[in-house]
Specification:
Distance between the termini: 123 Å
Strand order of the largest sheet: 6-7-3-8
Shape: elongated
Low-confidence stretches: 148-153, 366-373, 431-462
Order of helices and strands: HHHEEEHHEEHHHEHHHEHEEEHHHHHHHH
Largest sheet: 4 strands, mixed
Strand content: 5-15%
Structural class: alpha+beta
C-alpha cells in the first residue's frame, strides 16, 4: 500500500527488499494504470499487470498475482511464495451480540417449562401439607412429658405450609431439608418429587453447558452450497481477477450455477477493489469471495468479519515475469532460499499477526478473554444479591414483629437484642430488668405452691411434672436458680393435713 508521503509498504515491498538484498539489484516501482491484476478480453489481449508484462513494459511483478493456467500461457511465474485458496467473507450478524443477556442461564429451559416447574413446585408443596394433615403418622408428641396426655395441644405436625415449601425447594436444589416425611403417603410424594427434580436438573445442566461452551452461528450460511441455495444474500468477486476467472471457467455444477447468478445479478455484484467488497459485506446481505490470504489479513483488523466454510480451490502467489525471462530461475532459487530461512513466514507474521498503531488483532482479543461466557451468567449474581437483600429485610421485619411482644425473651438472643442490652448496660438503663422480674415472679410462685385438697394423693406428682415443664421454658442459666430454690422446700408443705 502507498503511504501519504508517497512511499510503499507491505508484505510484497518487504519481500522485494529481501530479494534485492539477496541478489543485489536495484528496482523502481511503477504502478499499473488501470489498477487491476489482469483479465483476458475477447481479442486475447490482457489488461492490468498481466498486460504490462505481456507487452514487456516491466521486468517483474511482486504482488498478489495468482498463478493460473491462462496466465501461464502468456507470462512466466516463479515458484509460489505463498499458498492460498478462495474463501467466503461474511459479516458477523448483529443478532449474535444482541442475544447475550444477563439471564442467559434461564435460556436452557423455555418459558413454558419454567412456568410448569413453578406450578409443579407449588402443587407438590400443597400436596405434602394436605397429606400430612390426613395421615395420623405425621403427628407426634413434642414434649413427651406425660404419655397419658392425648391432648392435641401437645402434638405437632411438622409439615406446615412454610415447611412444605421449604422441603420442596430443598429437594429441587438437591440440598436436602431438615424436615423429613414420616407417613407412607408423604414419603411417596417425596420420592416422586426427588425423581422429577433429578431428571430436570440433569437436563438443565446439560443444556446450560451447551449454551456456555458452543458458539452457535446466527447465519444459516456455512458453505458455498448454502450460499448457492439461497437468494437473500448476494455474492460476488473482484472484477478482472483470478477469483472471477475461477467461477467463469469452472465446470463444477454448483460453481457454474453461482457464476450464472453473479453474471445476471442487477445491480452488479462485482467490485473494483477488495476494500469496496468489504464495505458491501459490512453493509449486510452480501458475501465477498476472495483469496484466503487477503481474507485473513482483513479479518485480523476487523472483528466484524468472519470466514464461512473451507477453501474452494488451492493455488499460490508467484513472482510474475515476461514470457521467456532469464530472471525466472534466479528468482525461483531466491524464493526457495528465503523460504528455507523462514523469512517468508516471518514477513507474513509481521503483516498478518503483528499489528501497528491502535489496531488490536481479533485473535488476540479472543485469547485475552477466555472467560467471555461469564457475561452470559451475570444475571445469577444479581439474583443472589437480591435474595440476600430480601433475607436481610425479612430478618429485620421478624425482629420488629417479635419485639412488639412485651413478654418475648427471644429478642434478647438476637444481634439487635444484644446490642440493645449492651447499650442499656452502658447507659445504666438495665435492659434486662423486665426479664429478671418475670423470673422472680415465677420463682416466688413456686416457693408458695397452692395444692387443691381434693387432689392430695397426686399433689406431689403434679407438682413435679409442672416444675419439669416450667424448667423447659426457662433458659439454661436460670434453671440452676430454680433448682436451688426447690432444695429447701419441705415435702410436708405439699400436704396441709400432715
Amino acid at each position: 500500500m502507498k503511504k501519504s508521503d508517497g512511499k510503499y509498504e507491505g508484505f510484497c515491498i518487504d519481500l522485494l527488499e529481501e530479494m534485492a538484498k539477496d541478489l543485489e539489484f536495484n528496482y523502481t516501482i511503477v504502478e499499473v494504470v488501470d489498477g487491476t491484476y489482469g483479465i483476458e478480453d475477447e481479442s486475447g489481449r490482457w489488461n492490468g499487470i498481466i498486460g504490462v508484462l505481456q507487452r514487456h513494459e516491466a521486468d517483474l511483478s511482486i504482488s498478489a498475482v495468482t498463478i493460473t493456467y491462462s496466465r501461464v500461457e502468456v507470462i512466466d511465474f516463479t515458484l509460489p511464495f505463498m499458498h492460498l485458496g478462495i474463501s467466503i467473507l461474511l459479516a458477523k450478524s448483529t443478532e449474535e451480540s444482541s442475544k447475550t443477556s444477563l439471564f442467559t442461564f434461564l435460556e436452557p429451559l423455555s418459558l413454558t417449562v419454567w412456568i410448569c416447574l413453578a406450578g409443579a413446585y407449588l402443587s407438590v408443596s400443597f400436596s405434602m401439607w394436605l397429606l400430612a394433615r390426613f395421615s395420623p403418622y405425621e403427628w407426634y408428641d413434642m414434649d413427651k412429658v406425660d404419655e397419658r396426655d392425648k391432648s392435641i395441644l401437645k402434638h405437632k405436625n411438622q409439615f406446615t405450609m412454610l415447611n412444605s415449601l421449604w422441603f420442596a425447594v430443598g429437594s429441587l436444589m438437591q440440598q436436602g431439608s431438615d424436615v423429613i416425611p414420616r407417613a407412607a403417603a408423604t414419603r411417596i410424594v417425596a420420592v416422586i418429587w426427588w425423581m422429577f427434580t433429578q431428571i430436570l436438573i440433569s437436563s438443565y445442566t446439560a443444556q446450560l453447558a451447551a449454551f456456555l461452551t458452543v458458539e452457535r452461528m446466527a447465519t444459516p450460511i456455512e458453505s458455498s452450497a448454502d450460499l448457492a441455495n439461497q437468494q437473500k444474500i448476494k455474492y460476488g468477486t473482484l472484477k478482472s481477477g483470478s477469483t472471477m476467472d475461477f467461477f467463469r471457467e469452472s465446470k463444477i455444477p454448483i460453481y457454474e450455477r453461482m457464476w450464472a447468478i453473479m453474471e445476471s445479478s442487477s445491480p452488479s455484484v462485482f467490485v473494483n477493489s477488495s476494500k469496496e467488497g468489504i464495505a458491501r459485506v459490512k453493509a449486510g446481505n452480501y458475501a465477498y469471495m476472495m483469496e484466503s490470504t487477503m481474507l485473513e489479513y482483513y479479518m485480523e483488523r476487523d472483528c466484524q468479519l468472519q470466514s464461512i466454510g473451507g477453501l474452494l480451490d488451492s493455488k499460490g502467489y508467484g513472482i510474475a515475469l515476461p514470457k521467456g525471462s532469464p530472471l525466472r530461475d534466479i528468482m525461483s532459487r531466491a524464493v526457495l532460499r528465503l523460504q528455507e530461512r523462514t523469512i517468508l513466514e516471518a514477513l507474513k507474521n509481521k503483516w498478518w499477526k503483528d499489528m501497528k498503531g491502535d489496531h488490536h488483532p481479533c485473535s488476540a482479543q479472543v485469547e485475552n478473554n477466555p472467560t467471555s461466557s461469564l457475561q452470559s451468567v451475570y444475571g445469577i449474581f444479581y439474583v443472589l444479591a437480591t435474595g440476600l437483600i430480601v433475607a436481610l429485610l425479612m430478618a429485620i421485619g421478624e425482629y420488629c414483629i417479635e419485639s412488639r411482644r412485651g413478654d418475648s425473651f427471644r429478642t434478647q438472643f438476637t444481634l439487635f437484642g444484644q446490642i440493645s442490652e449492651w447499650w442499656g448496660s452502658c447507659t445504666g438503663k438495665g435492659g434486662n430488668k423486665k426479664r429478671s422480674k418475670l423470673i422472680n415472679i415465677h420463682l416466688d410462685s413456686i416457693a408458695n405452691p397452692r395444692i387443691d385438697s381434693t387432689r392430695r394423693g397426686v399433689g406431689s406428682l403434679m407438682m413435679g411434672e409442672e416444675l419439669r415443664r416450667l424448667s423447659r421454658l426457662m433458659p439454661f442459666a436460670d434453671e440452676s436458680l430454680l433448682q436451688s430454690r426447690l432444695r429447701p422446700l419441705d415435702p410436708s408443705r405439699l400436704n396441709p393435713e400432715s
